[in-house]
Structure formats: C-alpha cells, structure tokens
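Predict fold of Futalosine hydrolase; 261 aa.
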Amino acid sequence: MRVLVVTAVAAERDAVVRGAAGDAYGDTAAEPLEIPLPGFALLRPVPVAPGAFPPVVDVLAAGVGPAAAAAGAATALVAAELAGSPYGLVVSAGIGGGFVGAGRGVEGAPVGSLVVSDAIVAADLGAETPEGFLPVTDLGFGTVAHHPPEPLVRAVAEATGARRGTVLTVSTVTGSATRAAELAARHPAALAEAMEGFGVAEAAAAHGVPALELRAVSNPVGPRDRAAWRIGDALTALTGAFRAVSPALAAYAAEKAEAGS
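Predicted 3D structure, encoded as tokens:
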C-alpha cells in the first residue's frame, strides 16, 4: 500500500521524512528526491528501511490552508492513480494548536503532545446567524466531518502515545480567548486545531481513500503569544511520532492488502 502524507510547509515535511525514514535519512546515497507538482508543492518519496514501514511513503508539502491542502492532495492522488499505483491511505500531518482541558471534561492537549484524529472537522464552514454559527450541514448541503477508520486511530494512538479526539480545521488561526472558548463549546471533543486536515480529508474522500490526521502541538489555542510557541519541540515530536507509528501503519497496510486479496 502506498501512503501519502500531506503537510503544509517544508519544515513539517522534513520532520515527517526524518521520522519515517529513520536511520536511512541523512545517508547521502539515500537522500529523497524532490518531484515538483503544480503550485510549487513537492512530493518527496521517503527512503525506507525494508520492513519498517509500508512499501511506499510520499510526503507532500502542499501549502497552508484547506484549499491548498485539498488541491495538493488531489493532484497527488490523481497522479498516483494515472500511474497505476494508487494510494491506500492519506495522512494530514504537521504542527497545530492544542486546546486546554480545564473545565471541559477532557484531558486537553498541552504543548509538545501528539493528537490523532477520530474526527476531522471543518470548524468554520457554514454561516453566522443571529442565533449563532450554523455548520454547512444545517444549511442543507455539504459535509463538515470525516471519520478515520477506528482500528487505525486506535493503533496510531497506542503506537505514538497520541491523545485521541477531534482535530478542527480553521481558515483563520484562533488568536483570542473568546474564540477559543467558542470553538471549545461547539466542539467539546476538540483537542487541536490546524488549517489543512479537512481539505486533505475531502480530497481523499473524493477518491475513496481513508484519511487520518496526526498533529504535534506547538502552542495553546487562544491568545496569540509567539513567545510561548514551541515549534522546534513540536517538529521533534512529529519526527518521533512517524518513527513510532511505522508498525501501526504497516499492520494497517497488511490488513488492507489481505482484505483486497
């Protein structure tokens, strides 16, 4: 099974490559190739140690936001299908903001922790009304949530130590306590927010491919305080996650292959 991992920026892409490639990364003879795609995105095949990970893993830096993520993921999915080697799983990965758990009845996701999605939700796709926000589904069309396969979510959480919960996709990063409280009230199971997951999941769904989101928390969701962000620590955690998650994805690939045989 081929696995497509979609990130927003190159730093996230490289963190994933370091984790997925393991000891192979840094070997001059095994340096990953960069394949240009429309929109200046790069598809970077990972040099993988035999038996350590599914047979083929490609990591794509598609750009920031759900539209760029959807366009990049869809392009890669189409290219793979036309080449006769379609992807069996798409993973949206990177860093993101974590919701605190105080007063919400959930543990929360502190800086440095990992979150795996059991739901990928478009938090701001809908309409504002005098009575409050209405998701697009309440307007009678579209979708606002994708649910990854439960066995895969469970396996990834066990392998990485990630917290399981909803990951919100926003087009504008939360920068105030008021907005954070509003999102937490509407999505009580939310552990993290980022900007690409729903776009990736929409592209995957259009191709009949399951999607998953895996985030390393770099900052709390709320008032914007760059001094409190720990981007380097989050990227390190992301690398560790993709090193640890290899057996879970390999097992999932094997199950998918057996089911299709």
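The longest strand covers residues 87-98.
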